[in-house]
Amino acid sequence: MISFLPYGIGIVFGVLTTFYPTLISGFSRLQSDPGDTRFVNYVLEHSFQLLVNTDYVGELWSPPFFFPLKNVLAFSENMFGSAPIYWLFRTFFDSVLAFQLWMIAVLTLCFVCFALLMQHYKVNSWLSAFGAFLFTFGMPRVSQLGHQQLLPQFFTPLAFWFCWDFIRQPTNKRLVLTLLFIYFQLLASVYLGWLLLFSLVFVFSVAWFLDKNIKQNLFEYLRKNYKVFIAAVLAWSTLIIGLFAPYLETKKLIGGRPYSEVADILPKFTSWLRPAPGSLWWPLLSSQPENFLPWPVEHHLFLGFAVVLLTGFSLYVLWRKKEVLTFERELLIKTCLVVVAILFILSLKVGHFSLWRAIYEIVPGGSAIRAVTRISLVLYFYLLIAVIVCFDSYIKKASQPRRWRVLVASLVCLLGLSEQIALSLASYEKASFIQVELEMQELMKKGCDIAYVSATTADPSFWFQQLSAMGAGIQANVPVINGYSGWTPPGYDGSMANEPRKNLDQVAKLLPKNFKGQLCVIFPTDYTEAESVVAPHGKIQYRSFAGNFTSYSAQIPLQIFAQAIEVLNPPNSLKLGSAMTLPVRVKNTSNFLWFAKGLKPVRFSYHWIGLDGKVALWDGERTELPLKVSPQESILLNAKIKAPDVPGKYILRLTMVQEGVAWFDDRGAKTKDLAVNVAAQ
């Protein structure tokens, strides 16, 4: 009879030690950082909006960010396989609370599914719970708590369960369930699904080599069921192709990751001995600083000395105590340990060398696996199967007294559990970004067809700005040009420096030429530089309810650097070095206000160009505007012009310039060119 007590204790203890910042704060704090955490929340919310909102502006593979680019979901994980869990919570709670509950739920499912696998192998309930705890709440996974796409691994134990049973005794049902759960794991997490599929190839190969009966059983199965086998594999392949077709299209657009980027996140030997910060062994094993390794969070792979001891003990049992193992268990343990060794050797980086280069070059999808250190989540899965099953076999059949065996098992479990507790888990207040998103959302709902957030002051980090815009956009059901993802689209300035006019110029290039509508530009109210350069009509249109953000709107297509210049009395010749006043009429043909004052005012100026096309003088005299010039308004100026000091025939090129931003003619604006002869006279 199965005892549920150890499983209940394991789940409760795991949730408490992993999510204590969330639980103690009453769910007011979100784990773990405001980057990938909020992005994964966004992806899950995107799927929920597709499900419940018939007017939703997003499409399955095109959530409404990085507008107008399509297929942007394929820049990162899609989370399709774990989204239904989020939908359940989202039906009753707001998006952030639903996401927090989703995190807890998916890890609980990981625990349950690993425990079910152990029960399938008839492992003692306490040891099953111990193994499930290490698989679910172990240090390597808790270290990746900020990459929530790595949490849903609950299909992996089920895929292995039926795959192993199919290898040993193939049936149509086991084949279909194996393929189905592999596909579900790919849906739940592309990274973990690819690593699972990659590792199962080695599971099959090793088992085939170790047990000669496998070949005979498989050939016999194929002889009788080859039609079903072919149909199942073809159907599965069709599903896989359908899932990855958008990713292949995206790769054509943005290219693949260079191996140099992958090499930075290959695990070193020290990575496997590096525990999570704040854990029991952190003071002992963290002599090197966090910045010693590139991407340090990816290198906390140590699962604890209890697992090291159990691994050594398992090797001892295979060598000296085989009598405690049945043939089935011995084959399972050997296969899993060999697969662990293969994955370890393939991924290990020694100096500048790693066998993973061959995987990157040859295996389909290998070039998309940047953070190879995440292979630990699959490697430890096989290792835990081996050591838990082996330890269970020894405890049940060893000749020592039962009391002694229970004591040893208890000490190992207590050591293993205590090693996983980390006392420095990152979290932050939800309110720090919810307020920002609500204000932006309010402004986006006021007649915006598209929104663009120029900058925020609530947090200077790039991802805070972009994700705040994305979160507000999805709730307001307004596409946003901003974006944060695993990739940056071509032509998109990912840094989005706080230069609003420069950014809007990039925005104008990104928008489709035939698109018409209102673009809302949102920025902090106290950001005076932004107000002086991006206001299209010269006045504040809307201010958010708390007064922290201001929005302006501009008609699309955008005309940012646009001008019309008319010379009333053009000169034919000028004296060397002479100064003159040139009457001109300048019209603002853009849909943005020209400010005469401020940090970056618009002024009239010119260049002197030789007839050979070479620039004789670029920075001409400036003529200030006497007042603001609104879109489609004209103004008369007495422009200050100074002739070159070298005689010759020149082109006097007249243009506007926004100080500290750009010359209008550099951004495609039409200039007024005059042919002028400069002589000594």
Give me the secondary-structure category. alpha+beta
Outline: elongated
- Could you tell me the strand content as a percent range? 5-15%
Please mark out the parts with pLDDT under 50 across 5 or more consecutive residues, or reply none. none
> Could you report the average pLDDT, rounded to the nearest whole number?
90
Proportion in helices:
40-55%
Question: Helical region count?
Answer: 21
**Overall radius of gyration:** 32 Å
Count of DSSP strands: 16
How widely separated are the two ends? 112 Å
For the largest beta-sheet, the strand count, sense and barrel status come to: 7 strands, mixed
How is this structure best described in words?
By secondary structure, the chain is an alpha+beta fold. It has helices at about 5-25, 35-50, 85-90, 95-120, 125-135, 140-145, 155-170, 170-190, 190-210, 210-255, 260-265, 280-285, 305-320, 325-345, 355-360, 375-395, 400-420, 430-445, 460-475, 500-510, 530-535, and strands spanning about 30, 430, 450-455, 515-525, 540-545, 550-555, 565, 575, 580-585, 600-610, 615, 625, 635-640, 650-660, 660-665, 670-680. The strands form four sheets. Strands 8, 10, 11, 12, 14, 15 and 16 form a seven-stranded mixed β-sheet that branches. β10 (about 600-610) and β11 form a beta hairpin. α3 packs across α4 (about 95-120) and α5 (about 125-135) packs antiparallel against α16 (about 375-395). The longest helix is centred in the middle third of the chain and has 43 residues, at about 210-255. The chain starts with a helix and ends with a strand. The model has no long low-confidence stretch (mean pLDDT about 90).
